[in-house]
Amino acid sequence: MAQILDPLPPEQSGNILCCYVNATSKIQVARISNIANWYFERVVFPGQRLMFEAPQEAQMEIHTGMMASAILSDNIPCDRLAIDQPSRKEFDTDSLGIDPISNKSMVSLINTKTGDTTKPLTVGGLVFVD
Q1: Which residue from 28, 35, 47, 119 has the highest number of Cβ atoms inside 10 Å of its Cβ?
Q2: pTM
Q3: Whole-number pLDDT of residue 31
């Protein structure tokens, strides 16, 4: 996953795909400041998931928004936020729709029964109460 605004420095190797979820009810700012020549800072709204690519040695600072200020509330090593990246085999279009364990189709057939499927609508009577 490429960082559109802030690409990683070219000398960085061993990048990992990471995911951070703001599980609080407050706005947070996620910042990585320990990687030279790289600026990474994002606002993460409550319940939002932030996916990003970072070097393994990166440390993410989480600043929680308070009234007119922000408090450093957590410091998380990015290798703890790493997620498994799908392998090329998982993107193989030849096996699309096939369960890799049982080799059965994961898509059920649509019932194409023809016939009258309409039924009369029953409407309850209206009663006037004085």
Answers
A1: 28
A2: 0.58
A3: 93
